[in-house]
Q: What sequence folds into this?
């Protein structure tokens, strides 16, 4: 199975900060990667699909980039509602695999 | 609109078989490209992908859980069923079903999740 290594596992940031989360695949996955946001007690929410496509209704401060093995989720200006845990997921092949998550906390 | 809802027992005993049902609306699992997956999350831990069934009845499983999982669908009832045998306390988790419309489109709709506790 493809391993997805996410970093950092947690970070502290302030409102207005630019935040970057990375995900590395153990082998090439083209651009078959999504990013999800999860808040406590809630189901995950799709932010980005196909590495860089913004899901409908998601604010434009979220962006994704990368291809092959290295991917990045960027929040250009962190808002109070963005404090959550973020996961990457490769859907290049089966079994699909998630990263271990990045918790974004308030500084 | 698209909705998914998980149902099943909240408590199962060790060694028992868990059966979860995902009932959905707003789309058809007979539409080309459409897939439904099960994903779980132990308390305080990361998401774990379990299984997927597609419109053509192809099925895919987690490597580590493959021998314990069975996924099936009833297109007429708009349901996807997951069974997991030989339940253990480490299987305590919130279980989600989610929809994906083919490769690389992401899981755009999720159920609210159902917490399953494994305890004697």
A:
């Amino acid at each position: 199975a493809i391993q997805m290594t996410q970093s950092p596992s947690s970070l502290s940031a302030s409102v207005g900060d630019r935040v970057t989360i990375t995900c590395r695949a153990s082998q090439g996955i083209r651009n078959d990667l999504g990013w999800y946001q999860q808040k406590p007690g809630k189901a995950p929410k799709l932010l980005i699909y196909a590495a860089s496509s913004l899901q409908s209704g998601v604010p434009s401060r979220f962006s994704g980039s990368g291809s092959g093995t290295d991917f990045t989720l960027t929040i250009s200006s962190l808002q109070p509602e963005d404090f959550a845990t973020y996961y990457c997921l490769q859907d290049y092949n089966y079994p699909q695999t998630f990263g271990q998550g990045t918790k974004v906390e308030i500084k | 609109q698209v909705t998914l809802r998980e149902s099943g027992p909240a408590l199962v005993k060790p060694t028992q078989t868990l059966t979860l049902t995902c009932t959905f609306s707003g789309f058809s699992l007979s539409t080309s490209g459409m897939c439904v997956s099960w994903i779980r999350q132990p308390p305080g831990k990361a998401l774990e992908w379990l299984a997927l069934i597609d419109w053509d009845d192809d099925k895919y499983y987690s490597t580590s859980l493959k021998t314990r999982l069975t996924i099936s669908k009833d297109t007429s009832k708009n349901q996807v069923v997951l069974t997991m045998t030989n339940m253990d306390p480490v299987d305590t988790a919130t279980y989600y079903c989610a929809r994906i419309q083919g490769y690389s489109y992401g899981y755009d709709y999720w159920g609210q999740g159902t917490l399953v506790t494994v305890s004697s």
Observations:
- Chain B touches chain A at residues 37, 46-49, 52, 60-63, 96, 98, 100, 103-108, 110-113 (CB under 8 Å).
- The mean pLDDT of chain B is 97.
- The CA atoms of residues 96 and 113 of chain B lie 4 Å apart.
